[in-house]
Amino acid sequence: MIKKVLLLLTICFYGTNAQKSPHGNIKISCEVCHTTDSWKMRIKSTFNHDSTGFTLTGQHKILKCKSCHPKLVFTKKTSECTSCHTDVHRSELGQNCLRCHNMNSWIISDIKERHQQSRFPLFGKHAIANCESCHERASTHKYAGTPITCISCHRQEYLASINPNHVQAKFSTDCIQCHQVTTLTWGTSFDHNLTAFPLTGAHQVIGCQPCHINNIFQIKYSGCYQCHQTNFQNANNPSHVTGNFSNDCTLCHSTSAWSPATFNHSATKFPLTGSHIAVQCNSCHVSGNYQLAYTDCYQCHQTNFQNVTDPNHANGNFSHDCMQCHTTTSWSPSTFNHSTTRFALTGAHTSTKCQQCHIGGNYQLVYTDCYQCHQTNFQNSTNPSHVAGNFSHDCKLCHSTSAWSPATFDHNTTHFALTGAHTSTKCQQCHVSGNYQLQYTDCYQCHTTQYQQVTNPNHVTQQFAHDCTPCHSTSVWKPNTMNHDTKYFKIYSGKHKGRWTQCSQCHTTIGNLAAFSCTTGCHQSAHHQGENCYSCHRNI
């Protein structure tokens, strides 16, 4: 029944041609939206907007139909956003609004993140600036093609800068060379270390103008002198101008401060040590002469050299190389290393005054032996007399450098080593009349008297050998050490003890103790005539 009514209404209103619907050419039945009671819209329409190809989501779901379809002809409405929404971007960003916007809200909450994907990521103050701050400055396009150079937005700041004046200084319009885009301030962040003149020390805090006078920022500094010429010319302790100093100030000064200055004298051929470190420059560089080249100490210490009298350096023809005796710590006291000469000092020589040897200031003499200095000692020696004894001039044979007396001669270095009583015997007892050139070959030369006075046995008549050592020792002449019992025949023990009084009783051959006879005076009635008893009776 209802369908018939609607059909009649349609025919009445449009005539028999149903295609003349006020909504255009749609294939939706009228009862989907209208009722038979009234032409007004149903409170709950069964119309599914998805069937149109434009699904309603977000805010679109709660809008009234007239919000999007103000006219009855629904088919004239397109699915493009611009059919309802004004494109404030003037089609510069394309027709697809959903690239940035969504159905729930027209506001873009993540514009910063989206902008980071563009050719101009946002940092610092750019990240919180309104879009119009940059996109209203564009001359032709508001969004697409917006310039990304700093000067395109900040030309007024560039032109208005006076500290320093960017225009006069011909600064680059690439602002990021000095300004930061990652902070919230316009403050400069120019890295001077990227230039040929890195800033260190006090240069970091003095500001631009002290060096870039009259806003000249195109100057190229090759050295300190360009900026510190006044300091250089005004320096008077020492005077840099009269001293013909180098314009390379870094040799003495640092970037921390002009004063105090420190010059590394070790970089020259004359490093400073000892007292030289604290000496004022003018003390050596007289009259501001800093170009002199010192080769030795004498150039500066000539007065000290000439005034020395103990010993007299001038008369002694001393070397000008003062370092041989003096140090840089102090001129006095001096210490000369005599060991560097051919005559090293030991013993008492170490404390002997120089003048005692170097008489008359003669320091060029060359000592070859002790005699040159100890000639008087040599000639005055009487016990024994060195002159009469024709002693060697090599005093070291008997004397040491500790003292001239007492002297000690090592007799063992001769052909006659001293042992026993000889060690305490006075020299004169052997070296009679000061004869120290004699050469002993045996004991007889010294012990002739003892040899001749012996009667038991009589060494002379028996023609004993002059080699006393078989019977005597160096400890004492008497008693002798001849032990007939152990070496030859027992005459002090056994049956022969007390049977003899003279050696000649058995040793009948003079001068030949090896020859002896038993039959002479003792065994005359021997059974074997002409035979020596000893040949058979050895153990009697």
Query: Number of helical runs?
Result: 13
Instruction: Write down how many β-strands occur, each being a DSSP E stretch of 2 or more residues.
Output: 0
Whole-Å distance between the termini?
A: 190 Å
Provide the residue-averaged pLDDT: 83
Overall helicity: 10-25%
Structural class: mainly alpha
* Major sheet description: none
Q: Which stretches of 5+ consecutive residues score pLDDT under 50?
A: 1-18
Give your account of this protein's structure:
The chain has helices spanning 2-14, 65-68, 111-115, 131-135, 150-160, 225-234, 281-284, 298-307, 354-357, 371-380, 427-430, 448-453, 484-487. By secondary structure, the chain is mainly α. Among the domains are: 2-83, no CATH class; 371-440, no CATH class; 483-540, no CATH class. The longest helix is centred in the first third of the chain and has 13 residues, at 2-14. The N and C termini lie far apart (190 Å).
